[in-house]
């Protein structure tokens, strides 16, 4: 069976890590030929080297193109001419992208296509396809979802949600028989092995950790404000924030403004964050919108207790309604501070969560998720797995 995965880029991010995890658990399936078509070959496409050998990766736009586009974007507000130039450049890119994508698909003669996020939604010409197309939905549905987006979702043969709560949201917009739930696969043994690597000696102290792309939606500013209160209450732990993104400088300024330069560290992108998670006292999560946050699953695997804002989908399902970690009402900083302080003081409660975590994580086994995924694609293509 020939499968084509589509995605935007391979930078350090949660969705990209999930994509690589899927590719990794599928690499020993000899009956599958997998191609990956990525839109942008960015300089920081760190996950490219983690794609299993034997899988073909192509890019629509090379690194030189991406650098040129980023330069146009950064200068677009300098004058009206640069703004028009950037808009024209974007318009031209969309035309080229649609044609290049459909030419690639046509030449590949694929049995099934998997659009791993919403990035290629408006570039796929469904009427020209002769194979089924799956769309992954990684984030909770926004209340302000556009009619245009609903129409596009309905064009897909299947939409994969990554938790049950997200499926319940989607049923309001597309037929239930088009929706399947597949949890994010985690290679448990790989995570455990990587977690045994050492961390820099300067971080071998009591610390709290957070791992996420530095976007506003992750609410790192709330986390830093909460941490400031913890420091003011007398706690000596440091806070390590792992991840890169557009909010880096704003967060750095906030850290300086709150006098936290010696206790709160922005470490940037780290390819292997697992030793940092494993050795942390707690994993803190303040995001306002998620799908099924992989880092919380990884924290459970590594036996690191979690305090998380109860955003619409993800944390509650992963933390088993509060039996595997602390859930906090969305946006309630006072409750977050209180529950963090309690966990830092009460070893008995930490032991309770750890015992539950060891049982609950089996629900997210990569073997079960792989079985469900293979069953789905063979059913959709009508190919008999036993005869291949």
TrEMBL record:
Superkingdom of origin: Bacteria
GO biological process: carbohydrate derivative metabolic process
Keywords noted in UniProt: Transferase
Family annotation (Gene3D superfamilies): Glycogen Phosphorylase B (3.40.50.2000)
InterPro entries hit by this protein: Glyco_trans_1
Pfam families noted in UniProt: Glycos_transf_1
Protein name (Swiss-Prot/TrEMBL): Glycosyltransferase
Lineage of origin: Bacteria, Pseudomonadati, Pseudomonadota, Gammaproteobacteria, Pasteurellales
């Amino acid at each position: 069976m020939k499968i084509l995965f589509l995605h935007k880029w391979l930078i350090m991010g949660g969705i990209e890590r999930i994509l690589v995890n899927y590719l990794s658990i599928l690499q020993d399936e000899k009956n599958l030929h997998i191609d990956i078509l990525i839109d942008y070959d960015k300089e920081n496409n760190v996950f490219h080297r983690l794609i299993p050998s034997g899988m073909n990766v192509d890019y629509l736009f090379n690194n030189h193109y991406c650098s040129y586009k980023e330069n146009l974007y950064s200068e677009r507000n300098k004058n009206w001419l640069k703004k028009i130039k950037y808009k024209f450049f974007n318009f031209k890119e969309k035309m080229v992208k649609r044609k290049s994508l459909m030419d690639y698909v046509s030449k590949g003669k694929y049995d099934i296509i998997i659009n791993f996020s919403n990035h290629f939604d408006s570039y796929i010409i469904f009427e020209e396809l002769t194979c089924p197309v799956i769309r992954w939905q990684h984030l909770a549905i926004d209340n302000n979802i556009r009619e245009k987006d609903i129409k596009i979702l309905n064009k897909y043969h299947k939409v994969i949600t990554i938790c049950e709560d997200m499926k319940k949201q989607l049923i309001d917009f597309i037929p239930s028989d088009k929706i399947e739930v597949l949890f994010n696969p985690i290679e448990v043994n790989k995570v455990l092995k990587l977690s045994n690597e050492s961390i820099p000696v300067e971080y071998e102290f009591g610390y709290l950790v957070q791992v996420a792309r530095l976007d506003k939606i992750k609410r790192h500013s709330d986390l830093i404000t909460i941490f400031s209160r913890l420091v003011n209450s007398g706690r000596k732990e440091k806070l390590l924030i792992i991840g890169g993104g557009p909010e880096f400088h704003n967060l750095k300024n906030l850290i300086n403004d709150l006098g936290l330069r010696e206790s709160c560290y922005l470490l940037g992108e780290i390819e292997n964050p697992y030793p940092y998670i494993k050795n942390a006292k707690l994993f803190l999560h303040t995001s306002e919108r998620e799908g099924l946050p992989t880092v919380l699953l990884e924290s459970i695997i590594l036996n690191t207790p979690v305090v998380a804002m109860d955003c619409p989908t993800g944390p509650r399902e992963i933390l088993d309604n509060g039996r595997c970690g602390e859930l906090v009402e969305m946006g309630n900083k006072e409750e977050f501070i209180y529950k963090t302080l309690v966990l830092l003081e009460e070893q008995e409660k930490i032991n309770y969560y750890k015992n539950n975590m060891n049982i609950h994580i089996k629900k997210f086994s990569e073997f079960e998720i792989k079985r469900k995924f293979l069953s789905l694609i063979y059913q959709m293509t009508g190919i008999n797995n036993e005869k291949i």
